[in-house]
Every structure is written in C-alpha cells, then in structure tokens.
Amino acid sequence: MTIPNQIFVDGAFRNACEGKRTSLTNPATEAVFVEVASAGPADINSAVESAQAAWENGWRDLPPGKRGEILFNVARVLRENLEALAQLEMQQIGKPIADARDEIGLGARVFEFYAGAVTKFYGQTIPVSRGGFDFTLRQPMGVVACIVPWNFPFPIACWKTAPALAAGNAVVLKPASLSPLTALALGELAHRAGLPAGVLQVLPGAGSAMGETLVTHRLVRKVSFTGSTSVGQRIMELASRDIKRVSLELGGKSPNIVFADADWARAAESSPMSVFANTGQDCCARSRMFVERSVYEPFLEKFVAATRKLVVGDPASDQTQIGPLVSAGQRATVEEFLADAKKKGTRFACGGGRPAGKGYYLEPTVLADVPTGDRCWREEIFGPVVCLVPFDDEAAMLREVNASPYGLSGSIWTNDLRRALRVARAVESGVLSINSHSSVHVEAPFGGFKQSGVGRDLGMAAMEGYTELKNVYIAES
Ligand code: NAP
Ligand code: MG
Fold first, then answer.
1. What DSSP state is assigned to residue 59?
2. Ligand 1, closest atom to CA 229?
3. In angstroms, rounded to a whole number, what is the distance separating the alpha carbons of residues 130 and 293?
C-alpha cells in the first residue's frame, strides 16, 4: 500500500484547496517519513455538501440488506489489507506491531458487527391508550462528523464510522493531525469495497482551524468526538448553538481496586498492561490503584517485578509490548508530571527515566503511596505512569474513587460476589470489569460518566445514537 498523503473526498484522493501539508514523524526513529495534505475550511464546506448530496441521492434510501452487504465487504477488504494497515499505524504513532494488527482486526470486526446489525435494528410497537396502532422508527440524521484522536486511530475511526453508516448516515471523518494515515486508507478501502462516493469523506487537518468549521457546519447533524475533555467542552459549546446532537468520549483516571480476598497475585501480574499498554496513552488506563493494606506491600513487589519484565522497544518487533510515546510534546507533558512527583518526594518504585537511544520512549513508572491531593493522582497523565495507594475501609476508598471528575472505566478484584456487585454499583463509571481488565467489547456499550463524556460507542447503543427516534400513530377508526 502506498502511503496515502492527500484528502479523500467523493471517492478519490486529491490535494487540499490551500495546498497546506503537515509532516509526520515516526516516534520510534524521530525521522520525518511523509507529508500529508491538510484540509482547510473550503475543503470542509465542499466535503460536507457533497456528503449531504450522496446521502440524499442514494445512501439514505438504500434497502437495509444492501447497506449491510456493503459494510460486510468493507470488513473483508480491511482484513485483506490488515498487514499494510498495521504497518501504517505503527509508523505514524509508534504502536507495537502486534497491537497494531489486533486493532486493525478489531476495526474489521466492528464493521462486521454493524453490517449484521443493519437488519436487526428493531423498533417498537406501543399499546397507546387511545387504541389504533403506534410504532417507532429509527431514522438516520444526515451528515455526521466524526472527530477522532491519535491513540487508537483506526479502531476509534471504525467504531464511530461503522454504526453511523449502518444507521444510514453519511460521515465526514476528521483524524488527529498526528495519525491521518489509517483513516485515509479506511476511506479509500471502503470505497473500493462498494461504499458509494461521498458517503465517507476523510479530511485530515488542524483541529483548531478546521475542526470548528466542521462542528458548526449547518448540514452537520451530529458530532461524535473522542479526545480530551477540554476539546469536548468546546465542541459541546459550539454544538449548543443549533442544538446539534453530540456524543463525547473524553478523558479518564480509572481505578484498579484490589481486595485482599482476591487472587491478588494474579491481579499484580496482569495489572501492568492495564495501565502501560499503548504506553499509557489510553483513556481506560487503570492509572489509580487502590490495594487493601494487608496485601499492599507484597502486591507492590509483584506488580513492580511484572512491570520490569515488560518489553519496551522497537515497535516493529513482534515481542515489543511498549513502544514510544506519540510525540516529543507528549513525552514532555508526562515528564512534567514526573518532575512534580520528584519535587514532592514521591516514592518511585520503578522507572521515571528515559531509556538510552532514539525515539520518544519513557520507562514504565510506578509511584507508590501517592498523596491523593497531588497532580499525578488527580489529573490524567496519558503516559506510562501509575499511582498506588493502600486502603483500609471500603466506604472511604469508594469516596476517593468517586472524587475524580472522570468516570470512564475501572477494575475490581475480589472473590466475594456480594462485594463485587456492591462495589460495581457504587463506582461512578461507564465501564467496569471484575477480575479482568477488559473494557472494550464490540457488542457492548462503551462510554463515560461525568466528565468522561456523554453518549456511547459500540454495541446497539452506538447505532441508536446515530438516529432520530420518531413515533408514528395510525388511527384504526
Ligand atoms: P484532542 O486534542 O482533544 O484531539 C482529539 C481530536 O479533536 C483530534 O482530531 C484533534 O485534531 C481534534 N480537535 C482539536 N481541537 C479541536 C477543536 N477546537 N474543534 C474540533 N476538533 C478539534 O485529544 P488528543 O490530544 O488527540 O488525545 C488525547 C486525549 O483524548 C486524552 O485526554 C484522552 O483521554 C482522550 N481520549 C479519550 C478516549 C475515550 O474513548 N474516552 C479515547 C482516546 C483519547 P488535531 O489532532 O488536529 O488537534
Ligand atoms: Mg490536542
């Protein structure tokens, strides 16, 4: 696959109107490897208008079975190109190749799920009190803008695009400036698989400059966004002007709660990847660990030993588990947090420095006994740093868990079923796992409480979110 370096509009690659380009750096080598066209407001305006035309003139009214067939074809073509897509993902963000392959496969599965869902997207019949016949319709909205981040570029592009298309909308997809390549490839491969021209437009470009043109475009009916809480706030504000629908998947500071009755040794072995996978650049990262005091020190010892075993290095190696951070800027941000921790005399159980050599690497870092008022404990770091504290009392621990403004994900480790259910109910978060670190299931809703967002990705909930609900009443007499 040649590296896509233009915008993808109306079924073809072309240059952006203003001729602007952005260079991409491979974070593992620090070398610039491609320049990609950067869309401006004029490109956005014309792409939204032709998406609207493609929607009105065909996609909206295509029989569901036909829509499903096209989406199945998209999944097949993605699988045929899995290796090439994985290589692109690795190059642009330094994602370890084994993870990149898994994530391209995940994107294809998302298309398969929604291809099947098209013909299983049932409405309701409602026994209204005046008699007659009452039923609901789920109707597509029109043009949906999908704005996605750089940490999981391909899967997140798929889990917004696939349900939006399955529900019968057209999509304008804006990838993050650091990671446009696999999104552009998705546009082209989907078109090759039979998606009509204009139904999926892919426009890389600077969020601050053209993202707002997209969000405020009069023909855009919904904005589906994943990224930082601050940009999410801005999008919600802009969308409020004409009551646009929004769904937002934002930041997190998720807890990992380990009770002494759990198989805590297993939890200690598996927990490093729950926070250090993707070099900690994961909205679901279990970055606050609460461990019951009676097992805290032995847990910490095992956890640190497992962390030291992680393979940090070249993303191209099949063995690598942890690659570089996405950019020099992201590493500098994480290092500011570490400097704050050092200044405060925080206990570094391991890590804290840069490995030798090129690339934006940082060692997986474990901070123990972190005061809960400190920045590292309270703020999302989005890098390979975890904070641990011991706890004595379940209720006090839960108050601290819920003191965070975020509420995205989390894990609970216990073998006491009643406790598991009690704590699962009490934690304010959209996604939880018990004796596991899984957060993402294609079939189940994913999203946050509080400042982690509104609306849901994945599952049937996401597809509902890309429709308007209409009620129709038919008189019988
Ligand atoms: P970001 O700065 O919020 O950017 C996300 C996307 O929004 C990018 O495509 C960006 O474009 C665009 N954007 C930036 N400013 C915009 C504006 N004013 N209007 C419209 N679009 C705009 O986030 P990021 O730095 O890419 O990712 C890191 C953050 O995302 C973290 O806080 C993380 O927790 C969160 N995140 C959350 C989830 C989740 O599922 N909840 C998943 C991944 C990441 P540019 O790249 O051109 O700036
Ligand atoms: Mg940003």
1. G
2. 32
3. 62
pLDDT in tens, 348-392: 999 999 999 999 999 999 999 999 999 999 999 999 999 999 999
Q: Which residues of the chain have pLDDT under 50?
A: none
> What is the residue range of 342's domain?
255-441
Q: Which ligand is nearest to the CA of 453?
A: 1
**Length of the chain in terms of residues written:** 477
Find the ligand nearest to 146 CA: 1
Q: Are 101 and 437 in contact (CB under 8 A)?
A: no
CATH number of the domain residue 462 falls in = 3.40.605.10
**Euclidean distance between CA atoms 267 and 415, whole angstroms:** 12
Which residues are near ligand 1 (CB < 6 Å)?
Answer: 147-151, 174, 176-177, 206-208, 211-212, 215, 226-228, 231, 234-235, 249-252, 283, 380, 382, 408, 453
Give the pair of three-digit tokens for residue 242. Answer: 């004409």
CATH code where residue 401 lies:
3.40.309.10
Q: Does residue 224 contact residue 160 with C-beta atoms inside 8 Å?
A: yes
Question: Based on the domain organization, do 15 and 99 belong to the same domain?
Answer: yes
Q: What is the pLDDT of residues 231-240, one digit of tens each?
A: 999 999 999 9
Please tell me the distance between residue 196's alpha carbon and the centre of ligand 2 in angstroms.
32
Report the sign of the C-alpha dihedral through residues 253, 91, 458, 188, in that order: positive
CB contact at 8 A, 451 and 430: no
